[in-house]
Amino acid sequence: MADEPSERPAFLAYGLRQRGHAVWIVDTAARALDAVQRYRTQWLVTNVALRDGSGLTLLRRLRQSLPVRGIALASVDVDVPFMHAAGFDAVWIKPLSIAHACMSIERLLGHHPSSSATTGSVAPKLARLPT
Length: 131
What we know:
By secondary structure, the protein is an alpha/beta fold. It has a single domain, classed as Response regulator (Rossmann fold). It has 5 helices and 5 strands, in the order ααβββαβαβα. It has helices spanning 7-18, 29-39, 55-63, 80-86, 98-108, and strands spanning 43-47, 49-50, 53-54, 69-74, 90-93. The strands form 2 sheets. A 3-stranded parallel sheet has the order 1-4-5, covered by helices on one side. The protein has a two-stranded antiparallel sheet with strand order 2-3. This is Response regulatory domain-containing protein. Residues 1-109 form the Response regulatory domain. It comes from Pendulispora albinea.
């Protein structure tokens, strides 16, 4: 998960870990690139705007060598259809509750038959880098 330093990623990571997901948290595109390549994660949750680049650019770069699926963390003014067209498998609008994120992940993993206009299909592994 690549997001700006705050309590939000830690709370979200906690909720995801409680449900059995491996989660690494980083705060820059460079660290996210390193983490995904090192740990061979299957998907990436990334803020649209990181301190050192865009989440979309990061996702596209990773996809040149790995089959990574992407979830965008975005503000309410983001164009969700554009984000899907640009390559994100899902878009999560901030602020995001742990419950919503976990339910969304279950849908993304195919554990629930319902789907949402802001979700797509992704594989079940997130990543957290040691700090």
